[in-house]
């Protein structure tokens, strides 16, 4: 029996699209697929009914450009996630999604409480201390046990350096997304 053709709806990536996951492989025989979320708490991915996908950067490509998946269901399964989309009805079709990059619109992210931030919103923010000394720009965040750590890039002697600051109330005075700045109680020589 020939493999089932994968028919995806072409789409345009929304201006506010954020990469949130990868499709790992097929799961079961009815078109479900395993999903590797890029966040430890992928509520936005679970909430969104419309996922945008791009082909994998490496490996086989069974589609080109951007396509959209209308999600029937996405849920936790064991220590991972699985998803099932309209038009993906068997294992062969789901296997053709392997490695696809998953994006969703930032508008689909759940609202945050005061003092809560999505990591993606912190990337690129300038970090200064209480004295106004520039400490760098947030280039990454990393989970480090019970806390998150800001990874800053800064220039010193013509070379890019890295500085780590715990993202906890003891050191973070203010996060101003409109001003694209984080103020911290931290010194350059720490």
TrEMBL record:
PANTHER family: RIBOSOME MATURATION FACTOR RIMM (PTHR33692). Residues 119-189 form the Ribosome maturation factor RimM PRC barrel domain. This is Ribosome maturation factor RimM. The PRC barrel domain binds ribosomal protein uS19. InterPro entries: PRC_barrel-like_sf, PRC_RimM, RimM, RimM_N, RimM_N_sf, Transl_B-barrel_sf. It comes from Comamonas koreensis. GO terms for molecular function: ribosome binding. GO terms for biological process: ribosomal small subunit biogenesis; rRNA processing. One of its GO terms (cellular component) is ribosome. Keywords: Chaperone, Cytoplasm, Ribosome biogenesis, rRNA processing. An accessory protein needed during the final step in the assembly of 30S ribosomal subunit, possibly for assembly of the head region. Essential for efficient processing of 16S rRNA. May be needed both before and after RbfA during the maturation of 16S rRNA. It has affinity for free ribosomal 30S subunits but not for 70S ribosomes. Belongs to the RimM family. It is found in: Cytoplasm. Binds ribosomal protein uS19. Residues 20-107 form the RimM N-terminal domain.
